[in-house]
Structure formats: C-alpha cells, structure tokens
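Troubleshooting log. The previous structure file for this entry was overwritten by mistake, so regenerating from the original sequence record. Sequence copied from the archived sheet and checked twice against the printout by T.R.
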Amino acid sequence: MSAISIVLIAIVALLAGMEGILDEFQFHQPLVACTLIGLVTGHLKEGIILGGSLQMIALGWANVGAAVAPDAALASVASAIIMVLGLQGGSTNVTNAINTSIAVAVPLSVAGLFLTMICRTLAIPMVHFMDGAAEKGDYKAIERWQVAAILMQGLRIMIPAVVLCFVPAKVVTGALNSMPAWLSGGMAVGGGMVAAVGYAMVINMMATKETWPFFALGFVLAAISELTLIALGVIGVVLALIYLGLKDNAGKGNGGTGGSGDPLGDILNDY
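Regenerated output below.
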C-alpha cells in the first residue's frame, strides 16, 4: 500500500473516530467510511458494496444517553482495510474478501467498545481540567481540552487503522485463500443473517399499528425487479405525503376531537 493511501486512510479513520462521538457529519457510518477508504485505495466499487452491507447491520445501532452502541467506526474502517489488503494481494475472490470482511466487522465493533471505554476514562481528568479553566474564566483552555478529547477519540480509530495498513497484502490474501469452502460459505450466510438482524432491530423500534401496512407494501414492492431504487424512493415519498395529508385533513374534520387524528390508525382500530 502506497504512502499516500496510508495517509488518506489515516485521515478518514481520524474523522470516523471523532464522528463516532460527535454524530454530526456521519463519517463513522459504514457506508461513508468504507466508501471513502475504497475511494482512496482504488477499490471504490468494493468499498460501496462492503459499506452498504455493514450499514444494514448497523441500522439499529445508536448512542442513547450513557448506553454506547457497538463501534461502527472501528468495524467499518478496519474491515475495509482488511478487504483492500486482500484484494491488493492479487489472487483472492472479491466476493470472498467482502464476505470475510463483513464477518470480521462484528467482533471488531465489540472490540471498539473497549477502546471507547479507555478513551472515556482518560477524558475524566480532562473534564476536571476544563472545570478548573472555567473557574478561572479561561475559555481558550476549555476549547483546547475539548479539542484534545475529541482528537483522542479519533486516534483510537486512526492508530489501529495505520497499524493494519502495514500488514503485507499477500499475508491477508493467503489467509483468505486458505480458508476452506465451508468456512467462507458460513461467513457469507452469517453476514446475511446479521444484516437481517439489523433490519429486525429497526422494525422493532419503528413498528406500530400505523406503520405495519407500509412495511408490508415495501416488502411487496421490493420483490418487483423492474422497480429501481429511485422508483422505490419516489413511491415512499408519495405515500408519506398522502399519509400526512390524510392525517391533517382528518384532524381538521374532527375539529381536534373525536378520533386519534390518524385515519389509518382509526381504520385499524375499528377492526
């Protein structure tokens, strides 16, 4: 791997690590991180495929309060680097490299929680330093400590990423090619099952009496091969606008009383 690629990967990893805490520009999302690493290493198509697969797994991952979700940033960056090293070795199958990277991403996301715990522990004295600076009215010191804490979160992804970049590509390729067929096939099946679990987590959070008909309609429309992703997106937007219009009209018609204001929910309640 060239020096320029390693530097660009380090920048992407740094941004992904910081965004894992900030949740502002979404660089830590698998689709973004894997695509960027694929772009800087010359494997854009494979990066998008890997990122899309991992994104389906991470659909239900979110930091809520003190609860920390599995580390999507480390999983995305490290698995993308492993895939790139396998492909740069020259002889491995593309599908095999992607499936193996997907399978490796799950334990990497759990390992990332350990690194996050270390960084948050180290951040505790930084908070005390910021408190001391606040008592003195030193706002620039507060900003410096805040930037240092955020950079520390970026380094927890960047350092492992740079270390992985120095692993010989032929070693990774040889390891992928030496896997027996039953193992590589099992990883492919397992990766598909984990993606289904990600969908199930999202459905479990969003499913209500009002949304189930839209879920059913979406599954039916997805089975029609002639419909493109753009067509499915347009259908979804149109259905959402129709639903919001009916809901608004129902609320006005009832004068704010008599009914839930949700026409589809009222119909389902009648049954």
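The two ends are 63 Å apart (CA to CA). Archived copy saved in two places this time.
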